Amino acid sequence: MMQRLLLLAGLLLLGGCVSLAGHTPRGAATRLADPASMLVVTVDNPLAPGSASVGSTPRGYGLSGGYAVSPVASRAMDALSREHRLELVDSWPIQALGVHCAVFAWRDAVSRDEMLRRLAADARVESVQPLQVFRNTARPAVVGAADPHRSLQHAADSLGLEAAHRWSRGAGVRVAVVDTQVDASHPDLIGRIAQRMDLVGEETVAAEAHGTAVSGVIAALGGNGEGILGIAPEAELLGLRACWEQGGGSICNSFTLARALSVALDASVDIVNLSLAGPADPLLSRLLRQLIVRGVFVVGAESPSDPSGFPGGVPGVAVARMAESGVLAEGEVLPAPGRSILTTLPGGRYAFLDGSSLAAAHVSGVAALVLSQRPGMAPAVLQATLQASVRPPRSPANRGDPARSPMLNACEALVRVDVATTDCLRPTRVAQRP
C-alpha cells in the first residue's frame, strides 16, 4: 500500500507539471489561425486522376491514388481570386465531394458577411463559408502520472475491460485519430501508429499532448511492462494532425479538418475519432456524411454549449459525454469515462486528464472491440449496440449522482453481438500491489 501511495504522490507531482500546450505554430498553422479574415471556398473539380498533387495522399495505408486539380477548377480559382481581390492562402482537392477547396483572405475593406454574399452569388462557387475554429476538449485533471500503472486506471474497471479483452482486443480495426501530432515513439504506443500525416502544413512537428493522450486511451499497448492499458490495444491508429497547440490548449479549423477527413475517406479506416468541438460547419458535415454512408463509425466529443455544432450535431455521429458529469446522458449521447483518466503524454510521460475528448476516445476504443469481431457492422447498428450496453440502465433516479451515472460497458457490448458469454459480466478486480 505504501508503494502505491508513493507512486500516486509521484504522479500528482508530474501532473502539476503537465501542460497541454507546447511549441508555437508556424507556417500554415500561423496563417490559418486568424479565421475572421478568411473564407473557405469550393469549386467543382471534375474527376481528374493523375500525378500526385497537394490533394493526393501517399500510398501504404489503403489510400487511393492521386487526385489532381483539374484545369477547370484551377481556372475558376484564379478568376475568383482576381475578380474578388482574394489572396489564396492554401488549397486542397477533395475527391469524395468532387471539389477543389481553398482558403482565401480578402483585400477589400468589406465585411465578411458582404464577401460571403458576393461569393455565394458567383455561379462558379460550389460553396462558401467562414473559416471556423474548433477546440480539443481535454484538460489537466485535478490530480495528476502501470501496465505498472494499471491499478490507477479506474475507467478500465468501469468499462469491464479486462473481461472484454478475453474476447476482443481490437485486432484488424483501423482508427483515424484526427487531432494534434501523436508521439509514435512513446513506449505505450510503439507499433500502434501505422502512419502519421501532418495536414496543418508545417515542415517539422514535435509530438503534441492532446493527440498523444487520445491515442493512449484508444490503443496503448498491454502486457508490455510499461504504463497503461488501452481500450483496444491491438487496433491500428492513423494519426492525422489537423490541430496544433496554441494558448494553453489546441485548436483546428475548417480547412485543416477538411484535409484530414478527406484523407480518412481514402484510407479505408473503420473509425474516425474527433475529440474536439466547435460550431456547425457545412463543408465538414458533408464529409462526415460521406464517411458514414461508406460505413465508417464516427465518434465526436459532446459540446454541451452547442449540441447542434460540429461534430456532435451531424446526424449519425456517436456523441460521447463524460459519464462522471452527473448529467443523465439521454437520447443518443453515449456516456463514457472522462474524469481523471490516466493516459500517455509525449516523452514517455503519463498524466491524469479530464474532458469529453477522453470520453470520445473510450467510445472509439469500445467500438473497435466490437468491430474486430463483427467487421462491417453498419454505423447505426454499432451505435445502437453501444447504446444498449450502457450500465446501469439510464434512469431519472441516477440523475445528478456521478457515482451512479450510467456508463458504456465493453463487456455488455460484446454480449449484445453474441461474441462474449454472460459470464463476461462477472466482476473482476485488479490485484493491488503490496
Description:
The protein is an alpha/beta fold and 434 residues long. It folds into 2 domains: 33-130, Alpha-Beta Plaits; 135-425, 3-Layer(aba) Sandwich (Rossmann fold). The chain contains 12 helices and 18 strands. It has helices spanning 2-16, 27-31, 71-83, 112-120, 154-158, 161-164, 209-219, 254-266, 282-293, 356-373, 379-388, 410-416; strands spanning 38-44, 86-94, 99-106, 127-130, 133-136, 139-140, 174-179, 193-198, 236-241, 243-246, 249-253, 271-274, 276-277, 297-301, 318-322, 333-336, 341-345, 349-354. The strands form 4 sheets. Strands 8-9-7-12-14-15-16 form a 7-stranded parallel β-sheet, with helices on both faces. Strands 2-3-1-4 form a 4-stranded antiparallel β-sheet, sandwiched between helices. The longest helix has 18 residues, at 356-373. The radius of gyration is 22 Å and the shape is elongated. Residues 1-27, 50-65, 142-148, 394-398 and 428-434 have low confidence and may be disordered.
| Proportion of residues in β-strands | 15-25%
CATH architectural label of the largest domain: 3-Layer(aba) Sandwich
For the terminal residues, how far apart are their CA atoms? 5 Å
How would you classify the quaternary structure? single chain
CATH superfamily of the largest domain: Peptidase S8/S53 domain
CA-atom Rg in angstroms: 22 Å
3D shape: elongated
What percentage of residues falls in helices of 4 or more residues?
25-40%
Derived from helix and strand composition plus strand pairing, the structural class reads alpha/beta
Based on DSSP secondary structure assignment, what is the total number of beta strands? 18
Order of helices and strands: HHEHEEHEEEHHEEHEEEHEEHEEEEEHHH
Quickly count the domains: 2
Assigned CATH class of the largest domain? Alpha Beta
* Major beta sheet summary: 7 strands, parallel
Low-confidence stretches: 1-27, 50-65, 142-148, 394-398, 428-434
**CATH fold field value of the largest domain:** Rossmann fold
* Order of the strands making up the biggest sheet: 8-9-7-12-14-15-16
- Average per-residue pLDDT, rounded, comes to 82
Q: What's the helix count?
A: 12
